Structures are given as structure tokens and as C-alpha cells.
Amino acid sequence: MSADFLISIVAPLEGDSPDAVEAFVEETVAVLGGLAAHHEIVLVDDGAPEATVARVRTLLERHDFLRFLRLSRHFGEETAITAGLDVAIGDYVVVMLPSMDPPALIPDFIERARGDTDVVYGVRLHRKNEPFWYRTGARLFYWYMNAVVKMGIPEDSTQFRCMSRQVVNALTQIRGPDQYLRMLTSYIGFRKQALPYAPITRSGGVASVRPGGDALDLARALIIDSTAHPLRLVVWTGVALALLNLVLVVLHSAVGEIAGAAFHEAVVFVVLALVLAAIGEYVGSISQRLRARPAYYVREEHTSSVLLREERRNVVGKTAE
Fold first, then answer.
1. Which fold has domain 3-212+294-307?
2. 298: part of which helix (H) or strand (E)?
3. Average pLDDT value over all residues in the chain
4. What's the pTM value of the predicted model, to 2 decimals?
């Protein structure tokens, strides 16, 4: 017997193939059908291939509860998820990546979220398929963010998570050019619970690995947006080296070692360059956040007939207890 609450599935689409998206939708439909009387699947086009877009249009004709939100261009996975959360209407909202998250686990996420938990987040059981340098970088990132910055981002957590309506409402109140779901769900608080699982590889390859450049850029953005610690570290390191260089220059000048003094001046130049680079990153981040513009733009939105039918509007009368 399906329960009388509404479940929203939010799934961003970028490089996903048509077959992978169709398989994801069909599997999700089969799971949701026996889980809740009311549900919706919100697919967000974040620069998906045209063939994938065409396949989604056919799925809109086949299923009653699909919504297709097309962004004006590629904004990135995190922003696409934000766009999906903005339009999702469920009492419980599940975020999934079609390429790596198995729909069969949706009931487990929902069951835990309906208990004494507000956010149930997925955690990789292992990273053995990832390159050594990638695993090492991930360990260093999580150590720094949790041990030094104290952000409390669960190690090896994924985008796969189920959130109550209260949590989603809190997240959608936070507006900015960059919305990092894993960081924000830690920032807002609420009760959280981990659900370990093994990601699948629906589109082939190693689904859980971001491209190296994207991973480094995301780590940089998360660190700069979360703390001024790197800036303070670089600045005070520069101050300490500058003072040390001053002492050494005086000593070298006293004994006539001009070459040694020149070397230390070169060291100071490099350190100052690092300081200016760090300051530039922070100034750029602040400037971006001060710009009064939306985080994304919607090109078009399509909805299957479920929201239009008088006999089944797919909206529950009150929030589920």
C-alpha cells in the first residue's frame, strides 16, 4: 500500500546518454509506484546532449509524473541541483545522479528520513576504482575541511540524499552564485544520518570520479567560500619570511655577500606573489557574490499531464506527518 505523501526526485543531466537516462527513469518509476501515491521526477537539463533531450521528451509522453527543466546553458552540477530543489514540491526530496545512484535504494532513504532524521545522505562504500592520486587528494581535502576548517562535511559523501521539506525550504533560502549541497546540508544543521552504498556505473567507466580539473576547481571554491584560513596562512607566512629576509639582508650586507641578499630578495618576491594570488582569489569570490544576478536561468520547462488532470493533481492536501 503506497503512502499518502509526495516524493520528489531531482536529477541533473549533463553528459548522460539517452539510454542511461531512460533506464534511470524506468527504474525510478517502478520503485516509486509502490512507494508513494504521489510522486514526481524532476530532470534538470544542464547541457545534456540533444539526443538525451529528445529521449526525455518521449519519456514525458510515456509517464505522468515527469518534469523537465531546461537551463539556458551549462551552469554546473551543483547549480542544476539547486534549480531542481527550487521547483520540487515533495514532502521528501531525493537528489540523485542518474549515472551512479541506484533507484532501488530510494525506499531505504525514505524510510530513514521518515524516522528521527531530516537528511539521509549517501556515502561511498569504497573508492577502489579511483586513481591513487584522486583518492589521496580526496583524503587531504576532507581532512583539511573537517580537521582544520571544521566544516563537518561527511567523508566520501555523495549527492545521493533524501531531505525533508523543512530542510529543502532552509536550503532554498540560501542564495548565492555557488550552492554546494554537501556543504550546505552540513551548514544548516538538522539531524543527519549516513547510508553507505556502492555507486553503479550506468553510463560506463568510473561513475564516481569527477574530471581532475573540475575536482580541483570545486575544492578551491569550497575552501575559499568556507574560510579565510588559506589567506591568513599565506599572509603570515609572507610576513615571517619578510622579517627573516630583512635580518639576513642586514647580515649579508655586513659581510659583503651581495649575491646572498639577492637570493633572499627573490624568495620574498615569490612569497609576495603568492600573497597577491591568494588575495586575488578572495577578492574575486567576494566580487562574484556581490553581483546582483540569479545563479541560473531557465530556458524552458515541460511537465507531463499529471499536474493538469482534474482527477489526479499529484499534490497532497497537507504535509505528511
1. Spore Coat Polysaccharide Biosynthesis Protein SpsA; Chain A (3.90.550)
2. strand 298-303
3. 78
4. 0.74
